[in-house]
Design a protein that fits this description.
The protein is an alpha+beta fold. The protein has two domains: about 5-230, Macroglobulin (MG2) domain (Immunoglobulin-like, Sandwich); about 230-270. Helices cover about 35% and strands about 40% of the residues. The chain has a six-stranded mixed sheet. The longest helix has 25 residues, at about 5-30. The radius of gyration is 24 Å and the shape is flat. The two termini are about 40 Å apart.
Length: about 270
């Protein structure tokens, strides 16, 4: 749950937006020609910090800004969460039945990956440009390795291209990955806004936000922002204790389990 004053929050958004608008006006009057070398982009978020508590059900953050652009320009926003390891099982037909025969581990995989764009990515830039930018699940330089040696299992080595489709589908089902087109409002090639949707199952950590200004398939400018997501309340205390004082947390868990068992047994004896 995010705690803040609604009035102060709205005022902060309006003030920040006015500052960016003034920046845009100064850019417009200071340069009569737009090129890839002098293009400007400024952006900001309505919130840079999110607190996750026990009743957190997700939230939306407003991203807005201004570009030194023209009608027909495009904006791509990429939000990437902290990297994690993800297990993915591979199925095979055994005696006519499909079963899980192998577990593969994705490494350095974003726990959250959301792309927002003014239109379909294929219409904004070609695949080579998107690959150079590292935009899209196929362009993340992902790595995958089997949990067991392929010599033991007799199965071929898994490949990123062969399994990234299933990874993308699985992460999309739980709301952590996705691409949303036509989700950025761009007015007169100048002011833009969009909403970043953070679901309830996001992990704590630092989230990188890239804002890319495109025209005719070329990058004109880029800006960056960040979102810090922290656990709050009792869940944060338990989480921090488990990670910072793992020995004492484990000892406490054992003592608590013994005490709970003893108390339950005592209650049953009384009955």
């Amino acid at each position: 749950m995010i705690r803040h004053s609604h009035h102060n929050h709205s005022a902060s958004i309006r003030m920040t937006f006015i500052l960016w608008l003034l920046t845009f006006v100064s850019i417009s009057f200071g340069a009569h020609e737009v090129s890839a070398r002098n293009a400007q982009l400024v952006a900001d978020l309505s919130e840079n910090s999110v607190s996750i508590e026990s009743d957190f059900h997700g939230t939306e953050l407003l991203l807005f800004g201004a570009i030194d652009g023209m009608q027909g320009d495009d904006i791509i926003i990429v939000v990437r969460g902290p990297d994690v390891k993800i297990a993915q099982r591979r199925k095979s037909k055994v005696a006519g039945i499909w079963i899980n025969v192998e577990t593969n581990i994705w490494t350095k995989t974003p726990s959250f990956y959301q792309i927002l764009a003014t239109r379909d990515l294929a219409k904004i830039a070609d695949e080579d440009t998107l690959q150079t930018l590292g935009v899209g699940a196929h362009n993340l330089a992902l790595q995958i390795a089997p949990e067991k040696d392929p010599i033991e299992t007799g199965l071929p080595m898994p490949t990123v291209n062969g399994m990234v489709g299933e990874l993308t589908a699985n992460m999309s089902k739980i709301g952590l990955w996705g691409a949303k087109v036509d989700t950025i409002t761009l007015k007169e090639g100048a002011l833009f806004r969009s909403v970043i949707d953070l679901p309830s199952n996001v992990l704590s950590g630092l989230y990188d936000v890239r804002i890319i200004h495109m025209r005719d398939g070329m990058v004109l400018s880029e800006d960056n922002a960040s979102i810090t997501i922290n656990k709050g309340g009792l869940s944060a205390t338990i989480y921090n204790m488990a990670h910072q004082y793992s020995f004492f947390y484990g000892l406490f868990a054992v003592i608590f389990a013994i005490a709970a068992g003893w108390l339950a047994a005592a209650l049953f004896r009384k009955k």
